[in-house]
Amino acid sequence: MGDHPADSTGQTVCVSPTPPATILQAYTGASDDEVIEATLMDRRWHLVLDCLDVDQAPFSKGTLVAEVAQEAGAELVCGSSLKAALDRDWDQPQQKDEAFG
């Protein structure tokens, strides 16, 4: 635990709390949405993530999903955009390659 940098408004900013959050998520069985809610509302999570008195979630759901996928060695299809993935024609090899590319 230590001092955290402040943003331009003077608010405390957390520094990369995602790895410990994924450990807490696995331990509690929380969904991705519940993790984001806990990082906002649960003082116990604030303490473990070293993010006391932070007014905004220290990371977004997209960041959480992307980092978990990266740690697992999984590729994200079309980045983080589900719409982009659904708009692909998966029968076309070129579009399929671009999605994973």
Topology:
Layout: H1 18-28, H2 32-41, H3 43-49, H4 61-72, H5 82-86, H6 93-100
Helix pairs in contact: 2-3
Features:
101 residues, 52% helix, mainly alpha, single chain
Structure, described:
This protein has about 100 residues and is mostly helical. It has a domain at about 1-60. The chain has six helices and no strands. It has helices at about 20-30, 30-40, 45-50, 60-70, 80-85, 95-100. The chain is elongated, with a radius of gyration of 17 Å.
**C-alpha end-to-end distance:** 39 Å
What is the C-alpha radius of gyration, as a whole number of Å? Answer: 17 Å
Oligomer: single chain
Number of helices: 6
Order of helices and strands: HHHHHH
How many strands in all? 0
Q: Structural class of the helix and strand makeup?
A: mainly alpha
Strand content range: under 5%
Biggest β-sheet, characterized? none
Helicity, as a percent range = 40-55%
Mean pLDDT score: 74
Q: What general form does the structure show?
A: elongated
Point out poorly predicted stretches. Answer: none
